[in-house]
Amino acid sequence: LMYSLVRTAIYTFLFFALSLVIYLAFWFVIRPYKKRKHFQRYSETIGFSSSFIPFLGDYKHLNEVYLSKGKFIGHFLRDLAVDFGKKKAFFGSLGMDDMVFINDVDYLTEVSKLVPHVLDRESIDTTGFGRIGGTGGLGQSKTTKYWALRRQIFTKTIGVNHASRFIPIFIKHCEKGVSEFEEGQVINMSEVANTISFEIICEILYGCDIRDKLEKVRYTNKDGTVEIVNLYQCLMKISHDCSFASLNPLNILFPLLVHYSIGAENRRNTKNSDEFERVIKDICAKSQDSNS
């Protein structure tokens, strides 16, 4: 009887081990390779990185050029328009996550027609630290009434008729930023543009009295220490953390780790996101600007 139980246990273990190997091989090797081969038929309009590796996908390129230098996926997406200026889209793969980044308005219009009838957004945006993203931290939210309302408000805000009221704000912040330049100083215009854009967006969304009620954010570092930073610094730090978390194989294989903040890093990211969200809600509650 004991021999039979041991043999059954061994066979069961081998079965699940083989199933796991097949599962990982399909999602991390076979499927990304087939997807890449499929899109390569349209190489005249779709670009690809040159460092695709099974299991890792395009992570090697992303890590060497961006993540290892303290940058995050946002920089990678921003540079696509430069690196693939003549391409209308770019296909990328990170582990089992296949992505098509669109650089062309006509392409985007056609894809938008498929949502939500053929395609839909991932639901991970509504839980975990995905909440901080406008359209998703580790994905995008499903097409719900909440998402539709958020899109309606956002599109109204950036509409020409509505946004034209904020031109003086644009000019004010640009003049303030330029006034701080010194003769002979080397300027990183990318960082300057990010900072000025963030200040403009904050003032438009949260009111002209934003600086009077703006409080610092308590950001928790990896070593457990708490750092007091401003909203912009906190957003950049959380975006960087979420970019790394989205590449974690365990988070990809088991999304519940993110949903329920399981693991030290996920708990830290969720804690920082909660703090960021708390400050934003407090700003909105205190706002006295009817135009915000």
Automatic annotation (TrEMBL):
The keyword Cytoplasm does not apply. The chain crosses the membrane at residues 6-30. SUPFAM superfamilies: Cytochrome P450. The keyword Transmembrane applies. GO terms for molecular function: heme binding; iron ion binding; monooxygenase activity; oxidoreductase activity, acting on paired donors, with incorporation or reduction of molecular oxygen. It comes from the Eukaryota. InterPro entries: Cyt_P450_sf (IPR036396). Keywords: Membrane, Transmembrane, Transmembrane helix. This is Cytochrome P450. It comes from Euplotes crassus.
